[in-house]
Write a structure and sequence with these properties.
The chain is globular. It is of the alpha/beta class. The chain contains 14 helices and eleven strands. It has a seven-stranded mixed beta sheet, sandwiched between helices. Helix 3 packs antiparallel against helix 12, helix 5 packs across helix 11 and helix 12 packs across helix 14.
Length: 460
Amino acid sequence: MDHDDLAYWSKRAADWARDYHRTLRDRPVRAQVRIGETAAKLPAHAPETPDPVEAIFDDFCRIVPDAMTHWQHPRFFAYFPANAAPASMLAEQLANAIAAQGMLWQTAPAANEIEGVMIGWLRQALGLARHFTGTIHDSATTATLAAVLTMRERALGWAGNESGLAGQPVLRLYASDQGHSSIDKAARIAGIGQANLVKVPVDDTLALRPDALDALIRADLAAGLRPAGVILSVGGTSVGGTDRIAESIAVAKSHDLPVHVDAAWAGSAMICPEFRMLWDGVDKADSIVFNPHKWLGAQFDCAVQFLADPRDQIRTLGLRPDYLATSGEDRPTDYQEWTVPLGRRFRALKLWLVMRAYGLDGLRSRIRNHVNWAVELSEVIGGMDGLRITTPPMLSLFTFAAEDDARTTALLDTINDDGRVYLTPTRHAGGQVIRVQVGQFDCTRDDVMMVADVLRDLRA
């Protein structure tokens, strides 16, 4: 396959993609295959000689689409969305064609500088203070790990990277049980340890209690342990738990502790000024992460981390061996020093195209619609016999349940086997519940209300 072939097959692929998206509503949302079924359709060994591209493309069409859960389906209401607006798909096609490795400014000047400008655009769009700068990671998990590693080094006086963790003081991190599992993973990978991630009690609204945070920090100090940082949540993954940001940051700062705010999903909604009360006080945070790939239409992967002052993170993650040295008196920003991987994709391109192609007003309209439709759907489901709303809408996320766990689980299985919509479970207040999260880029009110239609049909 050469570049002339690529030109032809790229057009074929674009036509396929157009038809695929046009027919998504006719497909079951979740893959209707058994484990091992797809692998059984593939040869056991790679071919020794080239296969015709026609045969390769035919096999793709025959094997892959029906064995995929369709994340771009307009009735995908599971997890959080991983959206891919058409403008983002175009940007990825262009970035893939250039195929740059943007580890340094000189290896991809445009990628580097567009990233900086996009951070500025998003900072303004979300209403954040002017002192924030930032960078783009692959996912919020990596951004949170970067923040926790920086907390670790700061707490150890920058000795961990150089000397290792053996013999160092026991560090403590603080977050509520509504925080994402990426916080737990970061505590493990950073060498702090799961046991030293302190889960702070929450109040009736599922917000971390600032008074409990203060008491736990004081108790750890009295026990000779060393607090390292606080991780707060805005729009927790399970049921949308959201901490009282201003009060919690005030407690952390009273103990000179850095704060990372995980707003991976809900952060996108802050382009709408009316939702910003959910993170009042966030300008005092040291680090914030949100994922434009969840709700702004930028294709996965694309997680933005805002930093009040990047110097601590650069001191933690930055490493410049001789083979990465560049000549010249002016040293540009090299974002590989801000992140865990050395290699960097041209992720900023899709942010640039998406924000230009839809405009902030267009993106705000989508988010507002999703929130309004989720509220409407929750009211309809709450009025159905045998069903109850277990957590009210937090933006476009809510949960419901049947009379007991067994009926709830059976109902969810029936819904997903039906195929018209896709929902997922979680647990809340000791019981099994069903999550509904509205956020797919091209969904309509009719798509959202299909959840109620499916419930009526299946429970008739």
